[in-house]
Design a protein that fits this description.
Helices cover 63% and strands 1% of the residues. The radius of gyration is 39 Å and the shape is elongated. The chain is built from 34 helices and 2 strands. A hairpin with a 2-residue loop joins strand 1 (742-746) and strand 2. It is an all-alpha fold. It has a two-stranded antiparallel ribbon. This is EFR3 homolog A (S. cerevisiae). InterPro entries: ARM-type_fold, EFR3_Homologs.
Length: 768
Amino acid sequence: FAVELDFFSLFTGVCGCCGPLRPRYKRLVDNIFPEDPKDGLVKSDMEKLTFYAVSAPEKLDRIGAYLAERLSRDVFVKFANIEEDTPSYHRRYDFFVSQFSAMCHSTHEDPETCSRIRVAGIKGLQGVVRKTVNDELQAIIWEPQHMDKLIPSMLFNMQDNEDSERYSTHTHTLEKENPASLAESCFRELLGRAAYGNMNNAVHPVLVHLDNHRLWDPNDFAVSCFRIIMYSIQAQHSHHVIQQVLSHLDTHSKNTPRVRAGIVQVLLETVAIAAKGSIGPTVLEVFNTLLKHLRMSVDFELGDGSRRNSASSLSSTRTKESEERIVQNAIIQTIGFFGGNLPDYQRAEVMMFIMGKVPVYGTPCHTLDTVKIGHQGTKRIQAMLLSSLIMVTSGFKCKTMCAGLPVAFLEPLCSISLMEDSELRQLVLEILHNIIDRHDNRAKLRGIRIIPNVAALKIKREKISKQDVVFMKKHGQQLYRHIYLGCKEEDNVEKNFELLFTALALITIELANEEVMIDLIRLSIALQDMVLANEENMPMFIRCGIMALVAAYLNFLSQMIANPPFCQHVSKVIEMRNLDAPYLLPEHVFREKCVLPDALDRDDVGLYFQTADLAEALSVPGYNVERLAIPYIPQVTEEDRLPRRKSFVDTISLQVDILSNSLPDQSQLAEEITFETLKKAIDTTGLEEQERERRRQVMEKFQKAPFEEIAAHCESKANMLHDRLAQIFELTIRPPPSPSGTVTVTSGHAQYQSVPVYEMKFPDLCVY
């Protein structure tokens, strides 16, 4: 075997080195081996050994033991390196695999002897691998019964780091024969020779070994193993390894959080290496499995409400929740890292896939048991999926905005932006920033403030493309609407206003031509008018925050337009606010101890931006200033009529409350219906004037309003009509009655109602 290990000298002493004093059976065994292994065994000497074994059967055990010793010491590596012209049809290696594997697990009490035995076993397995992997007739070596011995033998020595440190101080020869390094070399060689159909059999024993030795927590060795695997196998086989790890994660779906987190982190390492190449059809499978385990982790954390409320298990519950957070963070990191390393065309597909998993009211795209996890669990799922979307979209550079924000992605994203949770709205805005910002300007716009010199920021900008112009004509009103409605949420904090400012600035940089800039000015003035009117009784902090947002954005826009009169008007208003109303500027209102007023003085026009002054400043070719006179009104959609901003659990109860509260009491009706009320109902004085005024407003709107606003309004009307017709058809079109009964669902329970034959109405042609 070409190793220094000599079992005979260890036990026979000095006399064992003298040939004439050796036992006869050993001399006969020695004689059958030729000096050159290529010559083969000496046939005549083999016949002598056979005759001796038959004559002295009591020596058979000793002959066999010494023969195995000579084979392990002198032959196998040399035998493995012999190149054969013709393959062997009868040779099998089961015995050698078993014996060498046993040597790899040696636990001899002498450390040096133990190491040498292990090295001999590893070299033996290496010889088997070299002799068989390229032999088409020896494909049996890749079968599970052999891989289950080969792979664990190598891993057992690789994980023994103490041996590596112990023998690192020995001579150079011993360093080369360190069991850990030799086992790793053999492991790499085996994986490098694995063909397409053998990958599963080679990887499965690794997973089983990590399970049996509890090496997922901590998972340093597991991560190291799979790094070796991914860098040793052929690149086109990477998806086999990923599928194996995903399947193993499913197997351990009910294991402890730390074990699941360890497997997910190993998956992160595998996909990080595989993402640099091609991983075939497993892209969506990776994300689907990870999202499934993300939902399961939330179920485990929040599903058992009775146990969470138990005082006796409070500490254990907190520990479990913190461990589940480790799993969830590992999954999000894996999703984000993997998605962030995919090419853009695959990344767009993954973005759509993840968005389809985010629970949004009104869309049947989710499979969450919201009754079980409740509002908090639903929110957690939404927040984590959006966080993973942030990582996937980071660095995403779409050529056109239609490709980055398709309708199927934009609509659910905007729906989430209107939910009554500031954290979710922040995540949505960050996703929009990642997609819209194609020139990496976001870092320069960080923080809401009055920027004194926008030119010093050196903002990168290109001329807006025709495709992006079309995108803004189709979807610009949708973006404006959600910014407008998102500004007045009562739970907004400074970060919300910062992200809204950045969103407006990025739209200006990436998507704004002259027409879009006019719309953005109209949006800003509409926000200012909404604050001054205060029809919704917003908190003073929100009102001042919106005013500060408008000031910061118009200051930025005026310098981007580079129109001197426009800049002068904006600067004048900001100076007046600095003197008389600093709480209307971002540098003051977002301070911790900013003193807010009790009311805003609408009559002090110097503190507010005036539409007439802005229109006069923009009276230059290219700007349609007539549109500034048309107040911006967000388009009304079916979304506003649905309680989709509430959580799933609150939705049903909210609808029930509305229905119950909308039905007045009969006593109230009796009190209200009087002669005066009837007289008022009959009197039509003034109705004609109201109708004429309404018609005038409609005509004015269709004459002066932008085309995209009119189109969006008509589209929303058409969608409402379609929904109403669908409801009517659902109520009127029923299946014909049947004597066997019909099924009706009431409160989630099926009820059967039978109709007697004599009560059924048949067509005349069916009756005789």
